[in-house]
Amino acid sequence: MMHILSKKPIGQIVAEDFRTVKIFKKHGINFYFLGNRTIPQVAEEHQLDAQLLLEEVEAIQSLESEENIDFVSWPLDLLVDYIEKKHHRYIKKNAPIVKAQLEELAETNGERHPELIALSEQFNDSVMKFTSQMENEELFLFPSVRKMVKAEHSRVKLTKSQFGSLKNPVLKMKNAHKTESERFSHIVELTNNYALPDDGRDAYQTAFTALQEFVNDLLVHIHLENNILFPKIKTLEKELKHEL
Q1: What is the pLDDT confidence band of residue 31, given thresholds at 50, 70 and 90?
Q2: pTM for the full predicted model
Q3: Is position 66 within any domain?
Q4: At what angle do helices 230-239 and 142-153 cross, to 10 degrees?
């Protein structure tokens, strides 16, 4: 069991059992974009004991729990519906709230803590990028996925004249995810991992709590697309006689 686990990419491990995300997050391991690495590889990169890391992951997998959602088994149309209704709506609802809190924090404490100004600016820029990407997904990618699923159910073989390949749109979104995940790593660094300074702890508490919740949701969002949605799109498109 552990030998097989050591060979699996961490993105696949999280996709198969989302409870394992707790282990990778605890050790600061990027599972959402750099999910193609194995546990021995990430252990070496983070100067961790690979055997202990494998044991931690295996221990969580062995627990009987209803917490784990088997996203891998979901049909593609259900998965895009879930991402749109849960994660897209979350960003649309909460991004303006976090934005306002960070801007207020920068305005009231930025003179003593200039990193707050950079934090606010970086968050605003990233939200603009994600908003544009979500629009592209909702207007093009997700409807295209639903069209493919209908074709699969109807046993219709699509030709290029009927349906363009999603290779380039998916690649662009993966690249955007990489850029923004790196930006959010920088955002977390600017907060000193959400540490509250002695001066103005109450003012920081609300903003940093909201920011941390936002980042956590975003990482799940990126994981679902990079490690599950995009590979499933590639597989289905090949089955429909398209090359990705």
Answers
A1: confident
A2: 0.78
A3: no
A4: 40
